[in-house]
């Protein structure tokens, strides 16, 4: 309880005297321990209804491991919410380079507007989307190169058929799949049937394996062709050039076939303008933003945000509650240190919309975190727990640099940032000089010997700095839970919300900011 945890600090000096108890208290008040989150599996099950999950391209084909994990998990959830609400339009706030937006449009055929304040991000999204349209070529080439080696490996690993239960793809399923493909739906079946092993079995002999390869090559080639066609179905209609698996002499075509092909060509051209389901837009989003001014064909939709930065996460929720067209929201925030706080500077700004606090409960209490606490909330406890330690040396460089600019230049606050200077620096001296240039401070009056004197003066305190930062890491989940529960309470205060909750979407080691704020409006809201 609170009384037990309070003994972690000295009653008189208020200094930390029991680190173990401090760590237990931090764990107790973390989001994973409070029992306020809704399991992702429960949400997906409730949204699923009679629909079946889509199958198609995997995002790890064209994203790094972290982004692939985030996009795959979140897109499945967004599609489930969209289907549940009966909507086809999605607005991706802070869309960046369009990873989530493009995947939602290609994989789930949702019409996505990706809005980002950076024109370079929007341009990058356009270029990236263009490159994605060529993805099938690489997929096809890679598949052909690895076909024989994959077939051999599978044959060697295949158990005796009499000793396994194997779920095979029967002819009827293939016929249905081809039929669905012709209707423009996404069908991509696994190359390997899923098998349930009854017991361990000896592999086939080399002779049997080679015979299987000879007889199975044609079927594998056919399967690969079907997979490539399925990839084409995933992509927008104007994503690839028209092609045919065989070439015909136009003179040999009958008139009826010529007319049919001409009509098909005309229909394809007519639909080209409508085939692009992803639209990157450049605009700065605030709580007062009128989406109708940005999106001319705004209809019933949902808002999403994958790692919306600072106040953007809060503004996403405010827009959601204010606009009747937006039926649902799924927002994962980040960059808590960039949040604006109403009670941080004690300045009266009645017209400003603040990032924290959002709910009336914390507003009435005048609650304030402060920048240092918000910076701590950005740390990744789970990564540290698995051995991905904090960059102690770069933190030490940064701390000593701050002493230098305060004592030598008299600067205590600056709007400029050092950025990722450490990784580009060959030594502490190089780091200081690069940083001073970024801060637009004259480094000519600071000799190398003076810089190294500061380094030697504080070098013995590096372990102390590491211990301090580890305490900040332990406390990080407690500060994050305050920010996230503030957003959830804000939604709970609204009258038009049917359901709202916090859901852990991602593996926190892969993606530390892993919690989504989700809400659905009442069906009657319009």
TrEMBL record:
Domain Methyltransferase: 66-342
InterPro entries to which the protein is assigned, alphabetical: Methyltranfer_dom (IPR025714), METTL25 (IPR052220), SAM-dependent_MTases_sf (IPR029063)
Highest taxon of the lineage: Eukaryota
Pfam families, sorted: Methyltransf_32
Protein name as annotated: MET25 protein
């Amino acid at each position: 309880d609170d009384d037990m945890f309070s003994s972690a600090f000295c009653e008189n000096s208020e200094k930390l005297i029991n680190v173990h108890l401090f760590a237990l208290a931090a764990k107790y008040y973390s989001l994973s321990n409070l029992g306020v989150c809704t399991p992702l599996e429960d949400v997906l099950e409730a949204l699923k209804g009679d629909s079946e999950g889509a199958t198609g391209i995997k995002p790890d084909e064209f994203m790094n491991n972290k982004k692939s994990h985030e996009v795959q998990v979140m897109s499945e959830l967004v599609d489930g919410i969209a289907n549940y609400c009966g909507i086809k339009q999605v607005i991706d706030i802070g869309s960046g380079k369009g990873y989530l937006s493009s995947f939602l449009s290609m994989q789930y055929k949702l019409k996505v507007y990706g809005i980002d304040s950076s024109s370079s991000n929007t341009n990058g999204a356009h270029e990236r989307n263009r490159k994605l349209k060529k993805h099938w070529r690489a997929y096809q080439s890679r598949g052909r190169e690895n076909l024989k080696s994959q077939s051999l490996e599978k044959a060697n690993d295949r158990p005796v058929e009499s000793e396994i239960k194997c779920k095979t793809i029967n002819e009827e399923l293939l016929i249905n799949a081809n039929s669905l493909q012709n209707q423009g739906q996404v069908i991509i079946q696994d190359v390997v049937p899923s098998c349930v092993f009854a017991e361990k079995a000896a592999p086939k002999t080399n002779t049997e394996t080679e015979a299987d390869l000879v007889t199975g090559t044609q079927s594998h080639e056919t399967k690969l062709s079907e997979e490539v066609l399925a990839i084409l179905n995933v992509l927008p209609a104007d994503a690839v050039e028209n092609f045919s698996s065989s070439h015909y002499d136009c003179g040999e075509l009958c008139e009826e076939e010529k007319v049919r092909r001409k009509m098909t060509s005309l229909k394809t051209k007519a639909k080209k303008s409508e085939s692009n389901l992803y639209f990157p837009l450049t605009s700065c989003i605030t709580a007062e933003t009128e989406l109708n001014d940005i999106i001319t064909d705004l209809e019933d939709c949902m808002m999403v945000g994958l790692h919306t930065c600072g106040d953007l996460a809060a503004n996403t929720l405010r827009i959601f509650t204010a606009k009747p067209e937006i039926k649902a929201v799924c927002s994962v925030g980040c960059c808590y240190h960039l949040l604006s706080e109403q009670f941080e500077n004690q300045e009266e700004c009645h017209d400003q919309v603040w990032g924290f606090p959002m709910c009336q409960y914390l507003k009435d209490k005048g609650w304030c975190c402060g920048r240092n606490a918000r910076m701590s909330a950005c740390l990744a406890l789970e990564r540290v727990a698995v051995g991905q330690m904090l960059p102690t040396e770069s933190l030490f460089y940064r701390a000593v640099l701050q002493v230098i600019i305060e004592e030598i230049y008299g600067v205590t606050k600056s709007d400029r940032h050092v950025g990722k200077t450490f990784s580009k620096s060959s030594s502490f001296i190089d780091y200081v000089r690069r940083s001073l240039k970024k801060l637009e401070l004259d480094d000519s009056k600071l000799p190398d010997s003076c810089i190294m004197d500061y380094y030697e003066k504080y070098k013995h305190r590096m372990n102390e700095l590491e211990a301090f930062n580890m305490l900040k890491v332990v406390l990080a989940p407690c500060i994050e839970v305050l920010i996230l529960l503030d957003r959830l309470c804000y939604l709970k205060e609204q009258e038009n919300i049917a359901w709202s909750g916090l859901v852990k979407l991602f593996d926190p080691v892969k993606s530390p900011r892993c919690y989504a704020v989700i809400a659905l409006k009442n069906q009657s809201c319009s």
